[in-house]
């Protein structure tokens, strides 16, 4: 069985983003804060902060 983690991020503008990942949640949050992507929701609202996760 492959485990997945549901996570919620708080964005710099006060909005929230919900995601799901199969990788380490810390690595995924790093990607949201650092990978170049002008079209993603979180790229325009950085920095983001992890406020909830559950595997």
Descriptive report:
- Helix content is 18%, strand content 36%.
- The protein has one domain (5-54).
- The longest helix has 10 residues, at 25-34.
- It has one helix at 25-34; strands at 5-11, 16-21, 48-54.
- With 55 residues, the chain is α+β, with helices and mostly antiparallel strands.
Question: How are the SSEs placed, and which strands pair?
Answer:
Layout: E1 5-11, E2 16-21, H1 25-34, E3 48-54
Antiparallel strand pairs: 1-2, 1-3
Features:
55 residues; alpha+beta; globular
Biggest sheet architecture: 3 strands, antiparallel
Spatial extent as radius of gyration: 11 Å
Considering DSSP H and I runs of 4 or more, what fraction of the residues is helical?
10-25%
Physical arrangement of strands within the biggest beta sheet? 2-1-3
Summed over residues and divided by their number, the pLDDT gives a mean of 95
Overall number of domains = 1
Characterize the overall form. Answer: globular
Unreliable spans: none
DSSP E strands, number: 3
> What is the structural class?
alpha+beta
- Separation, N- and C-terminal Cα atoms: 12 Å
Strand content: 35-45%
Number of helices: 1
